[in-house]
Write a structure and sequence with these properties.
It is a single chain. The chain is of the alpha/beta class. The chain has one domain: Rossmann fold (3-Layer(aba) Sandwich), CATH 3.40.50.620. The protein is 39% helix and 19% strand. The chain has eight helices and eight strands; from the N terminus they run βαβαβαβααβββαβαα. The termini are far apart.
């Protein structure tokens, strides 16, 4: 079985935090590859217009091209309508029966997991790797939340011990719209792509 880490998101744009998260998962859990999988229409992102999929994929390709165990997957791009994690995981297992899936999420997502579309299916189909070792919400520490899900759903949820990365795509879009330097937030090739295409100048 190939052990594949799946890191989903809009990647609008990809930044160093995404890459470091993928690197941590790869090293900490001995994975074979990390797939960066941009979503087509994420059901929870209604606050801004999502950049064209081809541009987001191109930025991911530029960000990952020098790392042999990083792969850009367009698996969700061809699907119409909202793309739900439970459905994506089921389709992945059908398409790649030799794959053991490690689905990477942020700690904030774990606390919202029971509000997801069929969360029990998500937990049944993948090991969940949760980023944010010091996270706490409503007085419940992350370790306790992980233990709750593992017991209630017979899940396999593990913590990723990555350092906190203080960078967000929304902040980068704002900086790009203002013509500011992005070289500290992302690989140079991605920053140059955004500069040359003027990708976020009208947003």
């Amino acid at each position: 079985m190939r052990r594949i880490g799946i890191l989903g998101g809009t990647f609008d744009p990809v930044h160093n935090g995404h890459l470091l998260l993928g690197e941590q998962a790869y090293r900490e859990y001995g994975l074979d590859e990390i797939w960066f999988m941009p979503s087509h229409v994420p059901p929870h992102k209604k606050d801004h217009l999502i950049t064209d999929g081809a541009a987001r994929i191109r930025m991911l390709e530029l960000a990952t091209e020098s790392i042999p165990y990083f792969t850009v997957s367009d698996f969700e791009m061809g699907r119409e309508g909202n793309t739900y994690t439970a459905q994506t995981l089921a389709l992945l297992k059908e398409a790649y029966p030799d794959m053991e899936i490690y689905f990477i999420i942020g700690a904030d997502s774990l606390y919202q997991l029971e509000s997801w579309y069929h969360p029990e299916q998500v937990m049944a189909q993948a090991v969940l790797l949760v980023s944010g070792r010091t996270y706490e919400d409503d007085g419940v520490p992350l370790e306790d939340k992980v233990a709750y899900f593992n017991e209630k759903y017979n899940a396999d949820i593990r913590i990723l011990h990555n350092p906190k990365i203080d960078v967000a795509s929304a902040d980068i879009r704002k900086k790009a719209a203002e013509g500011r330097d992005l070289s500290k937030d992302m690989p140079a090739a991605v920053a140059e792509y955004i500069r040359k295409t003027g990708l976020y100048l009208t947003k």
